[in-house]
Amino acid sequence: MDKLVIKGGRQLSGCVTASGSKNSSLPIIAATLLSGQGTFTLHRIPALKDITTFTQLLNHLGAVTTFSGNTLNISSQNVESIQAPYELVKKMRASIYVLGPMLARFGHARVSLPGGCAFGPRPIDLHLMAMEKLGATITIETGFIEASIPGGKLRAAHIDFPVSSVGATGNALMAAVLAEGTTTISNAAAEPEIETLCKFLIAMGATIRGTGTTELEIEGTNSLNAIEFSNVFDRIETGTLLAAAAITGGEITVNGVEPEQMKAVLKKFVHAGCSVKTTENSITLKSPEKLFPTDITAKPYPSFPTDMQAQWIALMTQAEGTSHITDKVYHERFNHIPELNRLGAHIEILKNQAIVHGPQPLSGTKVMSTDLRASASLVLAGLVAEGTTEVLRVYHLDRGYEQIEMKLNCLGASIVREKYNEF
Ligand code: UD1
What we know:
Blueprint: E1 2-7, E2 13-17, H1 22-31, E3 40-43, H2 49-61, E4 64-68, E5 71-75, E6 83-84, H3 86-89, H4 99-106, E7 108-112, H5 125-133, E8 137-141, E9 144-148, E10 158-160, H6 166-176, E11 182-186, H7 192-204, E12 207-209, E13 216-219, E14 228-230, H8 235-247, E15 251-255, H9 263-271, E16 275-278, E17 282-286, E18 296-298, H10 309-316, E19 322-327, H11 336-342, E20 346-350, E21 353-357, E22 366-368, H12 372-384, E23 388-392, H13 395-398, H14 404-410, E24 414-419
Parallel strand pairs: 2-15, 3-14, 6-7, 10-11, 18-19, 22-23
Antiparallel strand pairs: 1-23, 1-24, 3-5, 4-5, 7-9, 8-9, 11-13, 12-13, 15-17, 16-17, 19-21, 20-21
Helix pairs in contact: 1-2, 1-7, 4-6, 5-6, 6-7, 8-10, 8-12, 10-12, 11-12
Uridine-diphosphate-N-acetylglucosamine binds at residues 23, 26, 93-94, 122-127, 163, 165-168, 189, 193, 305-307, 329-330.
């Protein structure tokens, strides 16, 4: 296994370019299953473990893929299998994204249930509800979702989500574009990743109104085309890099971004005392002498994202006072806290809220990654901890951060990747 060995105490400075968004890549890769003609060319796809896992799933279904640089070519012409097996689905919950497109194109799909998650329950009831509304029959048998369409073709419906869900909105969209008639989705997720999926589907020939809002209207069509498309930047990677500058007292610029998508996070950096300057495609953050404590609540977009919650807690360990960080999306997403406390932080958990007592000097030790964003928070803590921090099990980090140690080292960090044996 790999670990990151971080020598703390170095201020970050300089410029770095954001990678393409992982969470946008996954639904657009799934959406290529909707077209039986031609080859898709997708640019700015990050070279990440999750992308490899997802393309393996597409290959298993019969799609042909080539990935070079950050360009992914996909031809789904020869897709024949409609079964997403446990061995691939268990590696990544986002595999559920193949359900909607496979069902819409082939009339049936067999997808393994995704299973548990490191930070609490992550049900898929809303994905299934959306498929049923569109006319599918769903049964769960021997660990598989068996979905079929008795009438042969999905029918338009009104789908009203009781909870805002990125994944379920994506699946509903990908199914509705090939359904008969006009589907409406209320309380749709408005995350930039869903906006990007809408733009992708529209470029393929779909008709979608309300892109970027919580009310979507989709006119079904019979066929969609293969296209060339450029993915958007990764807003969570960008927020993590900015937090790395803020926690080390540094100043960095992240290029290749759309600051508009990061308003809630940038506002909190300003509340914490950072100076934030934006251009059309860059963000420059300068850390203050002393960070102020801040209270945040993670909620669906456009609010502060749950995927930045762990990194924000790490940052607030260095603020002058007490911060309250509440997660209203995933109430139990606090695996990083015991590990941050092992580095010297003083953080308590009260239901779905973390109370961070800062500032606390951190000192390096071995810490364990438990999930993707938890690992990012440990790396941030390691950047400011005295001495050497070893972040173990970095395969979690590698799922979502492209060349993270290379990017941080270019900004002045000292991080080395080493192999180790876990007993
Ligand atoms: C996506 C992101 C993940 C992010 C999350 C919330 C990807 C690959 N992953 O995950 O990084 O943390 O959005 O922004 O894009 N829910 C249900 N029933 C369902 C589905 C969801 O109750 O069928 C609940 C969840 O438990 C959660 C909330 O809805 O409380 C939001 O989850 P959702 O937006 O679906 O998360 P994902 O799409 O899995």
